[in-house]
Specification:
The chain has about 90 residues and is mainly alpha-helical. It contains three helices and two strands. The protein binds iron/sulfur cluster (SF4). Iron/sulfur cluster binds near residues 46, 50 and 76.
Length: about 90
């Protein structure tokens, strides 16, 4: 049985297949849809310090944050206004 990994990204967990799938999906995003690499990394850095992150998944929305953060127009779903924005 795989253990939950609090405050880990998929990148740091054993869920490599899902990470590979997400990377492939991100590669298919158009430049208009995709956040810059700087924004992406900044968002993931915030997620890594968030108590809502479990094994790469945000408990607020059920998304894998490494996928959600790749979209230029997505926001953090935290009800207090989001921890990262567009
Ligand atoms: S609530 Fe926001 S900062 Fe926290 S894991 Fe979800 S997307 Fe990331």
């Amino acid at each position: 049985m795989q253990r939950e990994c609090k405050r880990c990204l998929l990148l740091e967990s054993a869920e490599g297949d899902m990470l590979q799938l997400i990377k492939e999906k991100i590669e298919k995003l158009s430049p208009e849809e995709r956040a810059s690499q700087d924004v992406y990394e900044q968002r993931l850095s915030v997620c890594k310090d968030c108590e809502q992150l479990i094994s790469g998944m945000c408990l607020k929305c059920g998304c894998y944050v490494e996928f959600r953060a790749a979209f230029k127009d997505k926001r953090c779903p935290d009800s207090k206004g989001g921890r990262w924005k567009v």
